[in-house]
Amino acid sequence: MKRTTALILALLLAVSLAAPAMAEEPEQEEGTAQEPSVVLWEIDEPEEEEVPAEETPAPEEVPAEPAPETEAPAEELPAGMGTALADLVSQVKKTLQIDDGYTELTNDFYDGVTPYWSLCWSDETRQLNVDVREDGTVLNVNRWIDSGSNDRFYGFDPAFPALSRREAEEQAEDWLSRLFPEPETARVDGVATVLGANGNYRFSGTVDMNGLPSPVTFALCLDGAGLSSFYRSDSYAGYVGRLPEPEAAADETAGAEGLAGAVELELRWVSDGEGGADLRYVPVGPETVVDAQSGEAVDMDALYAGIAGGGVGGKNASAPVAEETMAMDAGAPALTEVELASVDNYGDVMDQDEIDASLRGLTALGLDPFTMQLCSYSMDSASGDITASVRYTAPMTEEELYGFTKSGFDLSSDMELDLVIYKRVTLDAKTGALKSVSTTYPLWEKDPDVTMTQAVRTRAAENFLSLAAPELAAETELCTLKGCSDGDALLYAQVHEGYFYPDNYLSVTVNPGTGTVDAFSSAWEDVKFGSAKEPVTEQEALEAYTGALDVTLGYVAWPVDITLTENELYAKLLEQGYTYVEELRLAYYYGGADRVPGVDGLTGEAVTVPDGQAGQVFVYDDLEDVPQADEIEALGQAGVGFDGGSFLPEAELTQREAVTLLLQADGETVLPEAEDGDLLDRASWRGFVTEDWEPDKTVTRMEFIRMLLCASRYGDAARLLNDKADEGYEAIARALGMDTAEPDGPATRAVAAEMLYRFMDR
Q1: CA-CA distance, 396 to 443, in Å (whole number)?
Q2: Residue 128 and residue 121: Cα distance in Å, rounded?
Q3: DSSP 66-81
Q4: Which end is more exposed in the chain, N or C (fewer Cβ atoms within 10 Å of the end residue's Cβ)?
Q5: 448 preceded by cis ω (within 30°)?
Q6: For 22-71, what is each residue's pLDDT tens digit?
């Protein structure tokens, strides 16, 4: 039974007699179901009653069924586009089971690669937006219903969705069959439960076509009123052309050989996520597929790079901000010790003139023509470190074009654009250590004749690093790994025992026109390296890597250069700025490659990562004869519970376990290997932990009640009686149906699960 906030407060105050009684809201009768205020769609169609043949009325006695108010009689429909739109609206209504109660419908048409209609049904309390292609394919659905309630709480407020998971799965199956008719089939890969006042279930997955996987994905959300949203990934770009037949001319053996021949691995250090690094072979080759008809391996990266043109836009940089000086107030109050301590952090900070002189001393920055415009300071409250952020400006002149075209400069001058160069520098305001450099130019068309040899670029970058970051530069080398390419930048990665660790790097971009530094950035953390002795050979790693992958036959997105074809549709798209479109083609590719990030450099075993835990369901094998089994299973279906397959209901609950349950109920994913410090940060931010953090300490029943209620909408009310210990928490817990006996006794896992269930089922 749902209990309102007013009822709970009334129970609390009646127990305490510490405040005037509050008026109760009408309470729903025990045992009756709470119906949604507005129902958009009914999933189950009503069964028609069978009428015996002998009782069937004569045709003339059957009254004519009135036409829906939202549809005009066929003879009144306009010709051409209006007729087609009427047919489309009718089809969408059938697919989405849209009722006739809406009072308004608006229609917008959008042209493009795959034109579509945007339809919007609405009335005083509802709005339904549907994007649909001309062939009736539903692309996007978003529904809004005015619940008439403004009772919104933004703290800890989990609640079970109005639908059970089983009901949602049954409805999702029906909806997906409607939204994906043959030759498409929706394959659900994950189900996530969204807890809260507007709780729902989110089904996500991929779309099979002709029984084969495709690059199209979808997401569908269901709540107590039906379908709340739907989206498919090919909504607005879409794929052109006919869907190829599923038969392949090349067999799987040819596909496997073509894919394996394109695999490239590099041996490098890879972070283990816990402050260490292990030696690993990682894939660096291009994305490759094998054409299922020709049997040829195709470099998809090169294919896209060869045809995907497009210009780079620019915009005027913001105008310099005038500096203001604040007059001192002689009558201002004295500073506190805390304020003085904060101010003291600036005692040894370089002033603006010192910073300017220091940066101009780095001649590689090329600041001679630049003027300092701003110099701001920011302090890290935790460390006390202070960062200076400096902005320099310089006019771009005809004499110094910084590697851009003269024609672009002349055009911008004629248009009277603001031809100002901005250079931004950050540094440690106490030591002067450089942190970053970036340069923004007013032009975007580079002069192809202005070039710089690799040797000259490298020498300029290394000279700069020897002055700007000498200690770190001594531990780096110019990274030659394929995965280290970073556009025009030169990437210097840390080297340990002859192998690169790209996570620690220094990046430098040298302007080819002036030889000065346009950009500098770095990332560096202390790391404990593992062993590098006797790594396996690259051939052994290749065999392990390809052996861990599945050769899959399916449809892939294939770019087609439309600048080389004569087609009326393509001519129209060319006018709109498109240079290519995508088709679906049949090909072999490695399925699940994202779950095999490489091969252990020492053991030669493929490294695998599990699928994401979104939508995880916990199922247990030890709940027989457990009184709280139903509550535990309901939480498990909502993704709240413990790993391992056994719940251990009689085990005493620890602080870590209590925080895990509460974070999961608040929509967080908690991995089994999560660090205690990470859990503490997340729990403290939400208010679950207000006392000393002892992860392995047993939690009492009352301690768990406090953790559960303090961050919720009931926390303030519970604290009204703080002069009577936990009486407020106890009263609210009882009102929510929790067992508050033996408050100082240890909470078992089963007891805690039951309490959390009662809170969420309120």
Answers
A1: 9
A2: 5
A3: PPPTTS--GGGSPSTH
A4: N
A5: no
A6: 333 334 434 333 333 333 233 333 344 443 444 444 444 434 444 444 44
